[in-house]
């Protein structure tokens, strides 16, 4: 049965092509059956740490006899993973209340088994019963992780919306004092809270650790590194391409996952560097495994079980006996990677040689560095970034294997909060640049678009500011569960949801910008299709020195990209920041999302499905660096290139209205290397001479709230 009605709003963006977020002007409206499933899916994430919260979910869990389930144990390929998960259950899963980390090997193996059972479940009913069972019996963090990855990768669940990660587990995003205040409101019987429409409501001011304490200069940009949208983006980047997931069945290798892994981190570093310049900080510091680490970090976060996230002092002595083995491993892996990049190949155990000297082999290198299942080699090259993050997180060795207290670096939800994250990935991205340095510079012919000349670029005033955003942190408090009555809920049906008696929000302050447009004026000798890329980069270094292009090429951040049909003669291409490709708006809160789902279910409203809040997009409000009050100069670079169609037409095999297309091999608008033309060393005499490229100086102004 079809569960969507298509309504086409127009095709003005039909040729636009986002590398990560499908760009389409179509929307779809969900029907009742779909909304029923969406509601039930949302409720699995509500009050995560209270397994008895909803009596019907408890009934599903208790009435689902996992070991005797014919849906699991008589259905291939679920059966092998069901046996494995049940074996873990019988011998002791990670207990509820303990902290889950995908970087812990034992945790990861159990989470993968649960993911596989959920992924291979033969139908929605089986999937949901397993999920309800896991919510009750499996560790909370492990459950959310496995369920999130399963929903992301199951084709039949495309379009379903999950609550924002910061609402599911506020502990990884919101500072301790705010969580503590929320729990105090609950413990004091909601004293001091207003009652609106029968619901107790309060909003608690929240800030960043850079406001609460100044441990080092890096705290000046905690508003950026601790941004909940930025950290959610990185978490979802991982759930799209987990380092442990791969193979033909999932098709991740078709998405150039190795190249994407390297390019995503290079772009994160480039964007981070623009923010550093806006705060008079220079290049991302480098570190040595044999010297104290100058950059400490106090995360000001606390787990649900009461343990604080480990802190790292300034000048942390990483080279200590407890880390000797891990440091030796990382140093060995780093040297092996540098060696194979320089020699241009590596050998497999069977003696086969794998080429690393062609432009396309950057994908092979990325898989090798990430050490994912799509890599050619898994014995000699391991998880460099993972081991580095564990070492640098400064977590204490646990007495019991299940009683771990991971650092912020060991969670994808919180890793980007720590300034050392960027120092680690500067080392990782250095392998990317080392590889690219062995490739020849782009020639004039490789950059030139015959018959096309960019005449000029006009950009609106670029202005940033800080605004306020309310985050629903109700999941951080426990509420009184409804009593479970055995025998009351039999069979599989609609879940009854009693709305929470309280809604508690944290009011955060975030970087944002005023919407702007840019216009590209160009002349084309003949009509044709073009690929347009727009980058934002620094003009001066932290000392005010003018950058040369070659030393600066790795600092350009890809701001926009799209495919355009050019007419013969004069063309003016106008783009609004609201519609730039690759970006998404803020996530809808659980409270509002549930309300609109139920309004759609009852017919009061139509529930719209589109990609405006797609999990695979970068926050729109973070596309510009903060700049300065008096203005900060940057430079915009535009290049218009001949369109090179991908081997598989974009959006083939998935619905771009509902899905990001992960694993389809049809996500990208063309076949150019990611980051082209800044991905290689630059011959400036050639770069500045091609008529189809253009540099435009721009200034980013920052205004305070009062000035706006």
TrEMBL record:
A molecular function (GO) term: nutrient reservoir activity
Q: Where is the Hemocyanin C-terminal domain?
A: 441-702
UniProt GO cellular component terms: extracellular space
Q: Name one Pfam family in it.
A: Hemocyanin_C
Pinpoint the Hemocyanin N-terminal domain residues.
34-158
A biological process (GO) annotation for this entry? energy homeostasis
The UniProt keywords, alphabetically, are: Signal, Storage protein
Signal peptide range equals: 1-18
Task: Report domain Hemocyanin middle positions.
Answer: 164-432
- Alphabetical list of PANTHER family matching this protein: FAT-BODY PROTEIN 1-RELATED (PTHR11511:SF5), LARVAL STORAGE PROTEIN/PHENOLOXIDASE (PTHR11511)
The molecule here is called Hexamerin A
What species is given as this protein's source?
A: Anopheles minimus
């Amino acid at each position: 049965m079809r569960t969507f009605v298509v309504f086409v709003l127009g095709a003005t963006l039909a040729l636009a092509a986002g590398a990560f977020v499908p760009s389409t002007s179509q929307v779809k409206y969900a029907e009742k059956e779909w909304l029923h499933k969406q509601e039930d899916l949302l409720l699995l994430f509500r009050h995560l740490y209270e397994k008895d919260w909803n009596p019907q979910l408890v009934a599903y869990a208790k009435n689902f006899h996992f070991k005797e389930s014919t849906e699991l144990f008589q259905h291939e390929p679920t059966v092998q993973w069901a046996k494995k998960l049940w074996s873990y259950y019988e011998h002791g899963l990670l207990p509820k209340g303990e902290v889950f980390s995908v970087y812990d090997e034992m945790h990861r193996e159990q989470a993968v088994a649960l993911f596989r059972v959920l992924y291979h479940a033969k139908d929605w009913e089986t999937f949901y019963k397993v999920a309800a069972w896991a919510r009750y019996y499996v560790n909370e963090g492990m459950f959310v992780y496995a369920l999130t990855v399963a929903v992301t990768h199951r084709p039949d669940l495309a379009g379903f919306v999950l609550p924002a990660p910061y609402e599911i587990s506020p502990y990884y995003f919101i500072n301790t004092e705010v969580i503590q205040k929320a729990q105090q409101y609950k413990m004091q019987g909601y004293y001091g809270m207003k009652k609106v429409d029968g619901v107790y409501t309060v909003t608690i001011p929240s800030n960043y650790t850079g406001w609460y304490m100044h441990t080092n200069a890096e705290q000046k940009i905690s508003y950026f590194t601790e941004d909940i949208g930025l950290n959610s983006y990185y978490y979802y980047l991982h759930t799209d391409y987990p380092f442990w997931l791969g193979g033909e069945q999932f098709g991740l290798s078709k998405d150039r996952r190795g190249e994407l892994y390297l390019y995503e981190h290079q772009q994160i570093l480039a964007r981070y560097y623009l923010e550093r310049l806006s705060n008079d900080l220079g290049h991302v510091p480098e570190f040595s495994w044999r010297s104290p680490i100058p950059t400490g970090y106090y995360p000001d976060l606390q787990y649900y079980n009461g343990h604080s996230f480990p802190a790292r002092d300034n000048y942390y002595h990483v080279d200590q006996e407890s880390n000797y083995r891990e440091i030796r491993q990382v140093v060995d892996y780093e040297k092996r990677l540098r060696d194979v990049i320089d020699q241009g190949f590596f050998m497999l155990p069977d003696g086969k040689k794998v080429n690393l000297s062609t432009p396309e082999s950057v994908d092979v290198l990325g898989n090798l560095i990430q050490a994912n299942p799509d890599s050619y080699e898994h014995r000699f090259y391991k998880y460099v970034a993972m081991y580095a993050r564990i070492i640098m997180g400064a977590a204490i060795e646990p007495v019991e294997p299940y009683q771990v207290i991971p650092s912020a670096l060991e969670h994808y939800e919180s890793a980007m909060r720590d300034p050392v994250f960027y120092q680690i990935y500067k080392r990782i991205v250095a392998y990317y640049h080392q590889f690219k340095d062995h490739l020849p510079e782009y020639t004039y012919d490789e950059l030139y678009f015959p018959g096309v000349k960019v005449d000029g670029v006009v950009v609106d005033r670029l202005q940033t500011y800080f605004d306020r955003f309310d985050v629903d942190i109700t999941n951080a408090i426990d509420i009184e569960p409804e009593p479970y009555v055995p025998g009351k809920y039999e069979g599989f049906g609609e879940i009854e949801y009693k709305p929470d008696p309280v809604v508690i929000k944290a009011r955060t302050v975030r970087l944002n910008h005023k919407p702007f447009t840019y216009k590209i004026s160009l002349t084309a000798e003949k009509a044709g299709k073009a690929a347009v890329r727009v980058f934002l980069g620094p003009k001066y270094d932290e000392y005010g020195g003018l950058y040369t292009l070659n030393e600066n090429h790795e600092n350009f951040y890809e701001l926009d990209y799209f495919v355009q049909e050019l007419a013969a003669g004069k063309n003016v291409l106008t783009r609004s920041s609201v519609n730039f490709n690759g970006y998404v708006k803020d996530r809808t809160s659980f409270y509002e999302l549930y309300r609109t789902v139920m309004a759609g279910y009852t017919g009061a409203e139509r529930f719209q499905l589109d990609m405006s809040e797609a999990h695979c997009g970068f926050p729109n409000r973070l596309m510009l660096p903060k700049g300065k009050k008096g203005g900060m100069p940057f430079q915009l670079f535009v290049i218009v290139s001949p369109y090179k169609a991908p081997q598989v037409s974009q959006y083939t095999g998935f619905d771009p209205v509902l899905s990001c297309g992960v694993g389809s091999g049809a996500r990208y608008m063309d076949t150019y290397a990611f980051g082209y033309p800044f991905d290689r060393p630059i011959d400036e005499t050639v770069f500045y001479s091609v008529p189809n490229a253009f540099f435009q100086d721009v200034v980013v102004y920052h205004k305070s709230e009062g000035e706006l």
